[in-house]
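lol ok so funny story. i was supposed to be doing the assay writeup but got distracted and ended up predicting the structure for this chain instead. priorities right. anyway since i did it might as well share w the group, maybe its usefull for someone
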Amino acid sequence: MRSRRTFGYPATGTATGSMARFVVAGKADCPHYAKAELLADLLQRKLPDFRIHKICVHPNEWKQWLETTCLSNGWEHEHSPLVWRELIDRGGKGMLLGGFSDFMEHVQGYYGITSDMTTDLMLKIAKENLQTKELFMQEEAQGHSLLQPLHIWINSALHPTCYSLIPLLFDSEVFTSAPLISLHLLDVGGSEEALHGIKMETEDLSSPQLHEITVHNFLDDYVFHQAHFIIFLDDWPPGQEKEGQTEEVGRAVMKKVAKNFQNYGKLIDSRAHKNVRVMVVGDSFINLKCSLLLENAPSVDSSHFVAMGTQLEYEARAQIAKKLGVTSADVTDVIIWGNISGSFHVDLQRARVFRYEGAIYRPPNFSQPLLEMSNNRKSFETDIMSLLSLHRSMVTSKTERPAAMSATNGVCAILKAWNNNSSPKEVFSLGIISRGEYNVPKGLVVSMPVVFSCGQWSVVPNLAISDELRIRIEDSISQLKTEKENTVCS
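and the output, tada:
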């Protein structure tokens, strides 16, 4: 196809009072690009008001570069080189000339100058151009590697939680020692256009920490490459991973989950940084997903995989605060045991309440054990469990999506703790691999109370396990074992 050309302005500054700048772009290995750039150099030497800008593009990147440039300027062009001219004092508005033949025609018509470069010389210069371009790309890649950015991957990046999470990742309290962050958004089968929209908004944050952002809607060769942190969100929109499904459908869903996360685990094992830390977030099979990931990434420390129970913990604190007439920040040390997205238990044995307005005045820094404020511990815990379930259903019903802000808050709290930016006394509820603590079978991912120190978690020891709590934990263990059994292909 012949390029669509537009002529109409003289090329020199003497006729219009304007300085003309020509842009010659082409593939590094293109002989016609080599001939065009040397002809442009000749014009620049002979004409005082003539300026040339050259864009040398690697052959592997040329097609995408050409499509993007033509689309943004409303041009039609298919081959290398691409030549246009700009008027510097008119805002740099580009005017397409076309390809090599069009450029030659323009130069001959306006200046009476042509090129007598031989074919052998064209090929020699094209070869040199390619070598120079590849050397430059190697040096540039080496320079990027010296920057050593922190690589963060978010899976299911079209989930609402991702949208609210991204700005907080650049909060100085989350990654205190990371001067630069490379953010990678993955949503297998998701809309590429929507992912690019999130990318554009992230760039608009103008964060000095943002080194680069990439988007992926399929498992290409780059996925999880040298990842330092990976955050798995629930698939969006939600499918059949909810209540009300038949047992047969439930098994089919879990087998699909198993296949996906076994594959993710293998990719983490082969591609991610060996100190990668992985967090699974959401309300569908997150203990199971975490277990499948760590089982299929044997070269990564299993303690680097966690399932987030902090969201449930914070939501339970909010319900307790409503019952007592305090704020949710006034309630601390609530513990979530068991299967976070299934059979779990809210344990209040360590919970404390600040700023409660009782009969006796107490200073703001004074706290009371929550269970001492209730006449019936079992009833209080049962009420909180019921209120929590009702609250989650109401949020989903009113917003027509899962709770995103509370999930974001939980993710940031764990990231801060993992990066040494929390009190070593602060208790978090996390699904972690059991090593036999509290008689939980080894190798099972179960939510327990943990504290962080020096970037590592440890299970809070010596908690009282009542008969009621033991029954709840055993129910969770049984459910988790059933989920694992249902993932085994028949």
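The mean pLDDT is 84. The longest helix spans residues 119-147.
back to the writeup now i swear
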